[in-house]
Amino acid sequence: MGCVLIALGLFLLPYIDTNFAESESRDIKRLFTYVCIIGFSLTTFFALFLFTKITQPMQQLIQAANAIRKGNYGTRLSLVTSDEIGELGNTFNHMAAQLEDNIRNLNHEKEHLASVLRSMTDAVVTFDGEGKVILTNPPGEKIMQAWCDLDWAQQMGEGNESDSSASSSREVPEPLVPLFKAVMEQGRDQNSNVHVQQGVWSVQMAPLYADSVVRGAVAVLRDVTEEVRLEKMRRDFVANVSHEIRTPLSMMQGYSEALLDGMAASPEESEELIQVIHDESLRMGRLVKDLLDLARMEAGHTDMAVKEVDLVELLERVYRKFSVRSKEQDIHLRFECRQSSIELHQADEDRLEQVFTNLLDNAFRHTPSGKNVVISAEFLTDLRTPAAKVIVKDEGVGIPSSDLPFIFERFYKADKARVRGESVGTGLGLAIVKNIVDAHHGTINVNSVLGEGTEFILQFPVDSSK
User: Fold this and answer.
1) Among 46, 104, 126, 318, whose CB has the most other CB atoms within 10 angstroms?
2) In the chain, which stretches have pLDDT less than 70?
3) Whole-angstrom distance, CA of residue 439 vs CA of residue 348
């Protein structure tokens, strides 16, 4: 407005000078000057006032936007105007509230997902497109740390050393690399069993998509070592039972058919055939009895007549029982014990006799003539709990070190190349021994050197109720 008055005054100056006297012209010019100054001052004041009314809300808006950018999603504007700036402030507050709700919901979903992953017993590992780990749950982290410490060049063989060194720069463990490549290339789920050292892992790997593009993969790993071992034991058990039963059945069938066909030329031959049938029937009966006993023991239904047992007296009785057999096979059997009596307060005498009988039977069957079999017993008082220690040692052909971890499994026979007597075991004796010893809260260990002999070390607590 001041500018308009000044322009108007400049336009009217010639007209004032020509139509008014000099004194009147000077008064009019002075009036115009005052009016222009007052108009310019008023317009400047109103301009500053309007500028302040606009810039202050904009500054608040900028500060609120910066606060939200830094993560303070509870920031709100307190504008009470009803103009466009007030409407902008209300829109900003609504946007900030929606953003805060979305962020809160995302955090809740993230916490929920994290809780689910933490509660999973299976390992979950997520990889990005380059194979780097971006998310794991605790079991997955444990597996990744364990696998990262392995020397994959040695695990996979010397021929794969270059591949192992190349894969060390990636985060995907060496056993999962083929599955990861297949998922990234084909874009669909892959699954396989992975063998790492003595463990077996079932791996299910699925792709992660972003706008229809595979951006990574998630792997779920489950330890199925025990399941694979049990499945193998089941298959071996069925195969071994079938084999052990088939052999006597075949012999019984063959010899009985020979008798029916009249192939025996004399009563002596008939008696010999009948004796073979009888022996094989006894062998099959022992097998069935051992299987039933073992099944009851492993199911926790071991029938035990618990009472106080003198271990020295029991071992002496077993020693006398095998003395005759030792003379027949020319094997030197000895019993050594410094104590005259070792009392086990809670033990089953018949079951313990079965343990020592099975161990001595194995020792005699695998020890050549002229060698020694020794039974020794002692009372241990230097332990925290007093215990009785029994050692059954032979000078047989021994057991290979690779077979030692498995000798207490059912039907496992590590003596395929050993010297055998006339009687053949069922492969269940040591499994029964292990279950009886466990039922007495004892321990059994074996030491063996191939070609030198084997010793079984048994240890029973004097009072197994403690």
Assistant:
1) 318
2) 1-25, 28-29, 53, 80, 151-170, 236-237, 240, 243-244, 290, 294, 297-303, 411-427, 464-466
3) 10
Element (H or E) spanning 19, and its range?
Answer: helix 2-19
Backbone dihedral region for residue 4 (phi beyond 0: left; psi -120 to 50: alpha; all else: beta): alpha
> What is each CA distance from 113 to 16, 106, 124, 135, 206, in whole angstroms?
87, 10, 12, 11, 17
Q: What span, in angstroms and rounded, lies between the C-alpha atoms of 362 and 358? A: 6
| The model scores a pTM over 0.70 | no
Beta-strand (E) ranges in 121-268?
A: 123-128, 133-136, 190-196, 199-210, 213-223
d(CA 462, CA 276): 45
- Calculate ∠ Cα 104-105-106, nearest 5°: 90
User: Which residues have C-beta within 8 Å of that of residue 165, sequence separation ≥ 6?
Assistant: 153
How many whole angstroms from its chain centre is CA 350?
A: 41
Q: Are 172 and 131 in contact (CB under 8 A)?
A: yes
> Phi and psi of 412, rounded to 5°?
-80, 120
Phi–psi pair at 245, nearest 5 degrees: -80, -35
Task: Kindly report, residue by residue over 9-58, the tens digit of the pLDDT.
Answer: 666 666 666 666 666 667 766 777 777 778 778 877 777 777 776 777 77
| Residue from 216, 219, 206 nearest 175 by CA | 219
CA dihedral 164, 165, 167, 170 (to 10 degrees): 150
Please give the Cα distance from 18 to 27 (Å, whole number). Answer: 14
Q: For 32, left (φ over 0), alpha (ψ -120 to 50), or beta?
A: alpha
Contacts of 314 by beta carbon, 8 Å cutoff, 6+ apart: 349, 352, 353, 356
Beta bridge partners of 387: 380, 461
Terminal C-alpha separation, the chain: 108
What kind and span of H or E run contains 445?
Answer: strand 443-449
* Two structure tokens written together for 103: 């962020």
Residue 150's CB is within 10 A of a number of other CB atoms, namely 16
